[in-house]
Amino acid sequence: MSKKIGRRSSLSATAFAVALSVLVVPFATQAEAANGWSPELSNGSQVHTHRISQARDPNNNLVDVWLDGQGSINIAYNNRRAQTWTGAVSAVAPRVVYTDFGWRVFHTGTDGHIYYAGFQVNSDQTLTLGSWQQIPGNVTTSRAPAVTALHGSHGEEWMLAYRGNDARIYTQYHTRGSGQQGQGTFNTPLPIASATSDHGPDVALNPASNGISVIWTGSNNSPNVWESHQTYGSPSWSPARSVVTAPGPNISEPAIAFTVDTRIAEIVVGSFTNGDATYYGAPERLSSDGLIAAGGSHVVINEQFETNDPPVLSPQGNQIWGIGTDPNGNAFYKNFTHDSDEL
Does 6 reside within a domain? Predict the structure, then answer.
């Protein structure tokens, strides 16, 4: 029987969205499902790790990537038997994303460089794993990289966001045309003005507005969560703004996701004001259980997540999933879509 786990007032994980359904992260502190979280399986057994992420393609095929005890990257397709990706060792969570050219996996190597690789799905749903390629340029970090597929009209495109070794937040576009071979084109990494953090950022495409948002926590154990955005393809970012202040400094990497839905769940609705005049006038406020107490269409929800890494959010269409681990390294997932249906 699942145990009901209450929310905590000290916060360490952040989920952020704009005008979408979901995003609350109560989690099991025991090795069992609670509050809608279910064990994440591979070949019938629960995945055991402290570093995991997942993504889905438009047909809802699922890919999980995680680190084993030796720091090797394991990958499983549709919860089947995991395969180990040779030639890749990391100490931080790998990330997976589905692009217009197929699946891509990213990880930070032990040398601090960010690497990526693709894979092919065979007819028996085993995987043919590709070779790792280093992101060109001085793209180094000690944190997990964040990436979002852009699904543009010019071929394979993604955006990478990462914390540089100078603590600044950087972004980098990648483009490869439909007839282009090889790596494609990486633009010069672009820092977001005044954006520094103790932790890695997250990045997401808003398919409804064709905008991109990056979110990160402040430096020096700041309780503020910051956001900057741009229109897809813009050469610059908006000024960094604090979008939420958590009631405590113990927050780490935030998570961000968008759907094309506009329903909002798990929000204590406040008064709505003129967004052009007052949108950034004051940050949203969290209630004692980690929900927005005042604000407009931005939904920022924090919750204590007792693990070495915060949960990862993965959207597909009008649905968002979260995945993470408990303190014992047992992986759990949750589909948040039903939360909005209960409004």
Answer: no
Question: What element of type H or E holds 341?
Answer: helix 337-341
On the CB side of 99, how many CA atoms lie within 13 Å of its CA? 30
What is the DSSP code (8-state) at residue 276? H
Q: Are 257 and 17 in contact (CB under 8 A)?
A: yes
Any domain includes 157:
yes
pLDDT score, position 97? 95
> Is residue 181 situated within a structural domain?
yes
- Which pLDDT score is estimated for 268? 29
Domain tally, the chain? 1
**In this structure, what CATH number is given to the domain that contains residue 19?**
2.120.10
Is 5 within the bounds of a domain?
Answer: no
Confidence at residue 127, expressed as pLDDT on a 0 to 100 scale:
97
Cβ neighbors of 272 (< 8 A, separation 6 or more) are 296
Interacting residues of 327 by C-beta distance below 8 A, sequence separation 6+:
29, 306, 307
Query: Could you list the residue range(s) of the whole structural domain that residue 60 is in?
Result: 13-341
| CA-wise closest residue to 146 among 197, 102, 100, 184 | 197
Q: What is the pTM of this model?
A: 0.80
pLDDT single digits (tens) 241-296: 887 766 555 566 777 887 755 333 333 223 223 333 333 344 444 333 333 333 33
